[in-house]
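**Fold in tokens:**
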Amino acid sequence: MHTINLRRGFDKALRATTDIDLGNERRMLRFETSKRSSGGLSTFATVHQVSEDGRSITHAIGFGIPGMGDFSRLVEQEREWRCTEKNVRTLHERALERVEAITAMAREHYVQQAAKKAAEAGA
């Protein structure tokens, strides 16, 4: 069971987050469920680099280039749902049912990224 943290964001909308330590190179997988600017709710899984002191995180955007940047995936979305605590929690829990598969995808992303860098260095 993973801890779900419910809080209000800077926009006052409710959001749920769950952080999972990936145990390598100070990486953390974050599931975040929140209201979309276009309406409805969505859950994204993103990997963040944790600073050495553990006080901040960063996420590198790949700008749609395969294998670049940190891992990021849309896991779940409901276009018609309102941003209520019940709906946010339900969608977040539904996304967390796939945590093992998403974690494996995230790890594979970095394996492929390392292989690409090694191939480019050897070329």
